[in-house]
Amino acid sequence: MPLQLNSRSVLALWLFPMQAPLMPISTEEEQWAGRLSARRSRQFRQSRGYVRHALADLWQVSALEIPLHAPPGKPPELANGWGYISFSHCEDALLVGWSRQRVGVDLERSDRPFAAELLARRYFCAHDQSALCHLRGEPLRDAVLEQWLSKEAAIKWQRGSLAADLIHWRCGVDSAFAVHEVLGHQVDVHRIHHNIWSMAVVSDLSAMSNSPMLCLV
After folding, report:
1. For 7-35, how does the pLDDT look when each residue is reduced to its tens digit (9 = 90+)?
2. I want to staple 101 with a disulfide (CB 3.0 to 4.6 A). Which of 56, 82, 127, 204 is the partner?
3. How far apart are CA 85 and CA 68, in angstroms?
């Protein structure tokens, strides 16, 4: 069983540069990584190694003792009693989130180019499209990115899928919570901006009574 953490440690976040040296991963993870393309293998090793590194520091155990099960393409899980984990990477950074309750995180560069109006029209629910209709240019792009991050983080919290659930999550432009219009889930959304990165953290409504702790490495 894991150590008993201080009750104030409700939610912890770590932000790692993707060019950082690789950390140790399990034998099974090495086998999974070996079946991936060179680029995906590097991302896989980076994310699993730094999840283990972060949680080892949190729990004060060795990295390979962390009971992490995170095969490629599957939601990551920790053994019962060790809390919940979520992570996301963009081209140059990795965001790791841990909580006592279910958590979902998503990360993107704030300057990432994309077709904001087309993306919103294709993938967002009618409510969120309506909330964006008065925006143009850079404000529209920024708002769509914020919503996309929130929805992806919510889907990770849900353990759902982009294809099935993206259009059902409603979060508005400045809302501090998100709602799944079919399943009725309602969760907290915490948005963070740091340097060139934008992040969204989603957790149960009681988990974020205080701001998340962000550790920049």
Report:
1. 444 689 999 998 889 999 999 999 999 99
2. 204
3. 9
Contact 19, 43 (CB under 8 A): no
Amino acid at 97: G
CB 93 within 8 A of CB 43: no
Q: Please, which pLDDT band fits residue 156 given cuts at 50, 70 and 90?
A: very high
Q: Are strands 213-216 and 11-17 parallel, antiparallel or unpaired?
A: parallel
Give the mean pLDDT of the chain: 90
pLDDT (0 to 100) of residue 5? 42
> pTM for this one?
0.90
> In what helix (H) or strand (E) does residue 55 lie, and over which residues does it extend?
helix 38-59
Residue 194 token pair: 């740091």
Closest CA to 106 of 191, 194, 195, 178: 191
**Among 143, 194, 144, 205, which Cα is nearest to 16's?**
194
What gap in Å lies between CA 165 and CA 151, rounded to an integer? 9
Distance CA 39, CA 11 (A): 30
- What is the SS3 assignment for 31? helix
